[in-house]
Amino acid sequence: MEAKMWDPYEILGIDNGEKEETITRAYRKLSLKWHPDKVGKDLKEKAGEMMAEINRAHKTLTNAEARENYEKYGNPDGMQTQSMGIALPKLLVEAHTSPFVLALYGLVFGFIMPFYVGRWWYNSTRYQKDHILNPTMSTFFKNIREHISQRNLIELLTAASEFAEDDLKYRPADEAALKALVEKIRRVSQIYANDMFSAPKKFTGKDVWKANILLHAHFFRVKIDDGELADQQQQVVMTALTLVHRGLLQISTTHNWYTCSTLLMNISQMLVQGVYCYDAPLIQLPGITWENQPKIFKEKNLYSNHQLMRMTAGEQRKALSLLNDKQFDEAIQVAKTIPRLEIARVLLTVVGDKAITPASIVTLIVKVRIANAPNKIVPRGKGVAVADIEDISDEDTAAIENFVADFGKREKETKQTPPEAYCPYFAGRKDSQWWLSFANYQSGKLVVPPVRISDLVSERVVVLQFQAPPQKETYRFHLSIKSDSYIGNDVMQEVQMTVVDRSTLPSEPAIVDDISEPEEDSIAAQMAQLRGQQAGARRGDDESSDED
């Protein structure tokens, strides 16, 4: 609702700019109409208000100073200040409630707000950027080594401070359930893993011991009867996976430790699938357990999912005869979805050259594909014809150079959503992703940090660059692609690279700077002849001046 401006002309019923005689005439007329003595009793109050307005309007328009103030500021009294405020309930401003209001302000601004701000600041300084506690990263840095066993890595993982937080830490009430769980784990581990489960030797805290028990119960698929402890186990597993990916693996790859990084990738697979190290990949299928898997391997010599999928339907049913028909159908359906990875092409090249020379920038091109992918069609750009690296020969340097130049643009256009991994023992949703590692065989060091392939649906090309060694020699590398979700799906290929002297490269063609003479009857020839005549005339003048 808009505020109405006070207008003396409107009150007197005249037009703007009228003379004083007209103003006085209108004033007298309205005064006779609205004088309190001229109206009835029911209009006396309104008449009083109207006369006040009429008198003010007349004074404004007949007094020079008041009229000037009105024309400048819209008010006969001159410039007016405006103030704005907040409407508060009467309860807050009344005198008898002021002590309570002050006490409330003191409580909010003196205690509650500082408490929450302080807690926020404390939590923000406790964590690193990857949301891992600072004491955890400190423990990892101090204790991780290049040559460390997988068992010791798991013990180091359980020493994380996250497992000592309120919701996961050891409680005396858990003692009885944990002891019973330890007996079950030891019994299973001794029978099927040939490795007796025992307490960590280096990290002896009760919180570490509890986390270790819950993780190994997950690895050996030992059922936990206590509901609260089972919920804590799922939380421990998901926290451990985060610590492996963003903590331990990050430290290991920063040091370029190939073996240690590979072991951590194995632990990632164990956490997602709920299996122990070196388990048969067949145990990932529904219906396959610790009890029947050794029998299947012993009687049918069946170890992996890929081996199962190479059999005929009759051979599959015979190999899994321990399963009933429903279990068999479920196992085959899941086995079909577990990806079978292939390395389609590996190329080491120096873009623009036909050989690799010392200290040159080497480009590694790797094409991988899922052999059993449901969709074999891969988009190769929007309206752009893109060459397949499999169709380019090693000697076609121009085609390789064009492929590498266009790779970045094509990669953005072909991002796809990876399939969900089958992991019934993992509490959350897990996408099937992969790590590509490239390591020097002689030194055992990673040449480049592992690349996380998070969008592999049917096929994918990865392009990496690194500097060639300074010595002329033939080098051997391990190209490894590991799943972060499945065991038994990893592929590895040995790659050789020969570094040669730069003198063996073909010499670059000389730049031809041969300009043919213009024809005699052409304009260029005539202009050249004219320039020659002018130059000769200048030389003649110079010679004659010297003789003089």
Molecular structure report:
The chain is α+β, with helices and mostly antiparallel strands. It contains 18 helices and 7 strands. Strands 4-3-6-7 form a 4-stranded antiparallel sheet, with helices on one face. A 3-stranded antiparallel sheet has the order 1-2-5, covered by helices on one side. Helix 10 crosses helix 11. The longest helix is centred in the first third of the chain and has 29 residues, at about 100-125. The protein is elongated. The termini are far apart. Residues about 380-385 and about 540-548 have low confidence and may be disordered.
What's the quick description here?
This protein has 548 residues and is of the alpha+beta class. Helix content is 46%, strand content 11%. It has helices spanning 8-12, 20-34, 44-62, 64-73, 90-93, 98-126, 134-143, 150-158, 175-193, 206-219, 227-254, 258-273, 293-300, 305-309, 313-319, 325-337, 397-413, 523-547, and strands at 341-349, 361-370, 434-440, 446-453, 459-467, 474-483, 491-498.
Structural class designation: alpha+beta
Number of helices: 18
- Largest sheet entry: 4 strands, antiparallel
Shape: elongated
Strand order of the largest sheet: 4-3-6-7
Order of helices and strands: HHHHHHHHHHHHHHHHEEHEEEEEH
In helices, the fraction of residues equals: 40-55%
Strand percentage lies at 5-15%
Distance between the termini: 105 Å
Query: Number of DSSP strands?
Result: 7
Unreliable parts: 379-386, 542-548
